[in-house]
Write a structure and sequence with these properties.
The protein has a six-stranded mixed beta sheet, with helices on both faces. Strands 11, 12, 13, 15, 16 and 17 form a six-stranded parallel beta sheet that branches. The chain has a four-stranded antiparallel beta sheet with strand order 1-10-9-8. The N and C termini lie far apart (about 130 Å). Helix 8 packs parallel to helix 14, helix 11 crosses helix 12 and helix 13 crosses helix 14. It contains 15 helices and 18 strands. About 45% of the residues are buried. It folds into two domains: about 260 residues, 2-Layer Sandwich (Heat Shock Protein 90), CATH 3.30.565; about 200 residues, Alpha-Beta Barrel (TIM Barrel), CATH 3.20.20. By secondary structure, it is of the alpha/beta class. A hairpin with a 2-residue loop joins strand 5 and strand 6. InterPro entries: Glyco_hydro/deAcase_b/a-brl, NODB_dom, Polysacc_deacetylase_ArnD.
């Protein structure tokens, strides 16, 4: 009996062991959302970003941003800055207007700046009291898509009045520009809510498989904050930063934590809007393959926000002009050349290069006569022959002229039939000043909106060009063409620049 019982017990134990070996515990259901790292900022080096910077001590502003080869994005960033400046003015700051300073060569997005503490950012303000800081980070460059994160902080160290972060995605192929909230289908909110709650409770160690309740209206607001902060990772995943205070009944009693969850590309498809799906597909092809930035003279720039100066060169082209073009190209700066028709005919390759590199080509007559001394027919001949020569070389229409010596009359303008562009800063480089004097005048005199007069037929002017361009850049200026200075088109009538000593003829 004892033996049988022992044998029976031994046999039963073996059967139980065999059953236990084949048993598998229930597995977690597959989930779309998974805990993730946040999207990390990336270096702006090598990306098609035109770096910009605004510093204004009076209004207490420090703003770093960038323009892209994407006009809708550029319009958005300009509007973002204007709205922020409006809020700063409402807080009692001095009015903002473009201003020059010193030590402003470093511009654009600084990697990781949007993740600094608000007080760290406010510590960069140029003055005490309430101010505005704008920082940016590149967060995506894949396929034809660029993603830029922008952070706006208003206040002063220790007293933050506003802290907003937003990300914008620009598809350079389609021209579309999307905010994160526009990536999702509105009707997918309940499913997104469930995914976020499930990811959060698993991360917190919950073993619950209880069905997740639909969100309340207050929780829907939290959800919209979350999906409005979503960012696209390099692999096409949608990464969501769950906002502070995110709550649900299913998370009650669980250890709170900073939560970041990601939705892989395949899993996100049913939740995406049509525009979101298109953008994700456009970003799915690996490294950035979109367009490079246009030439400096053809880029977007808003000279009512950014301090701009138009550097102009008369009487060329000459054998010296290629060295000047080299200096401009190396420093990504634009200029306007008012060329003599006779000189252009002698150096057509230089004319072609200047135009191809995005510089503006204006008419300076055929051989530099004093136009008021000529009859209307001769004025037209000087202008029309030169315009025909320049257009024949560049393939582009000529939209402005500069009267020799700055001399004109109403009859001159009627005969020329082009806007006349004068200047507001005369460097007198034709007098051959010492290099340091020429640089001091060309760099130290301009204010935003000025037109600077020089000549690319003088060796001293061309030799001083690198120092002049660098000096203007250090003062915070963007070097633009005359048309860029005036919003993209030649001014009507007579253009002279904004400086206090403008030559008006």
């Amino acid at each position: 009996m004892t033996t049988a019982t022992a044998a029976g017990t031994a046999t039963g134990t073996a059967a139980e062991a065999e059953t236990a070996a084949a048993w598998e515990p229930p597995a977690w259901p597959e989930r779309a959302f998974a805990v993730s790292d946040p999207v990390a900022p990336r270096s702006p080096e090598g990306l098609p970003l035109a770096p910009q910077r605004i510093v204004h001590a009076g209004a207490n502003v420090e703003a770093r941003f960038a323009y892209l080869p994407h006009e809708a994005f550029n319009a958005h960033i300009d509007e973002t800055i204007r709205e922020a400046l409006g809020r700063l003015a409402a807080a009692g700051s001095a009015p903002y207007r473009p201003a020059a300073g010193t030590g402003l060569s470093e511009r654009g997005c600084v990697e990781g700046s949007t993740e600094l503490g608000a007080d760290e950012l406010l510590a960069t303000l140029p003055g005490p009291g309430v101010g505005l800081v704008l920082a940016c980070d590149a967060v995506l460059a894949a396929g034809s898509v660029l993603g830029i994160r922008v952070r706006v902080v208003l206040g002063e160290p220790g007293a933050v009045a506003e802290d907003r972060t937003s990300t914008l995605y620009a598809d350079t192929a389609s021209g579309a520009v999307l905010r994160p909230s526009e990536l999702w289908r509105t009707e997918a909110e309940a499913e997104i809510w469930g995914g976020l709650v499930e990811a959060a409770r698993r991360e917190a160690g919950s073993l619950s498989l209880a069905e997740i309740a639909d969100p309340s209206e207050a929780q829907r607001d939290e959800l919209r904050d979350a999906i409005g902060s979503a960012e696209v990772a390099d692999d096409g995943s949608l990464v969501v930063r769950v906002p502070e205070g995110f709550s649900a009944a299913e998370l009650s009693g669980l250890e709170p934590s900073d939560r970041v969850v990601a939705l892989p590309p395949g899993a996100s498809a049913p939740l995406l809007s049509e525009a979101g799906a298109s953008l994700i597909a456009a970003a799915a092809s690996g490294d950035y393959t979109g367009p490079a930035l246009p030439a400096p003279g053809e880029r977007h720039v808003d000279c009512t926000l950014v301090p701009c100066v138009a550097v102009t060169y008369d009487d060329g082209p000459s054998a010296l002009t290629p060295a000047l073009l080299d200096a401009l190209a190396e420093r990504r700066a634009a200029a306007t050349f008012f060329m003599l028709g006779s000189a252009a005919a002698a150096f057509p390759d230089v004319v072609s290069r200047a135009a191809a590199e995005g510089h503006e080509i204006g008419n300076h007559t055929w051989n530099h006569p004093a136009l008021p001394k000529l009859r209307a027919a001769k004025v037209r001949e000087q202008i029309d022959t030169t315009s025909a020569t320049l257009t024949g070389i560049t393939g582009r229409p000529v939209t402005m002229f500069r009267p020799p010596y700055g001399e004109y009359t109403g009859a001159t303008l009627r005969a020329a039939r082009l806007p006349a562009i004068l200047w507001s800063v005369d460097t007198n480089d034709w007098k051959g000043p010492p290099p340091e004097e020429l640089v001091a005048t060309a760099v130290g005199t301009p204010v935003p909106g000025d037109i600077v007069l020089m000549h690319d037929i003088h060796a001293g002017t061309v030799e001083a060009a690198p120092a002049i361009i660098d000096g203007l850049h250090d003062r915070g200026f963007t070097l633009v063409t005359v048309s860029q200075l005036h919003g993209g088109a030649a001014p009507l009538g007579v253009g002279v620049g904004a400086g206090p000593d403008a030559t008006r003829g």
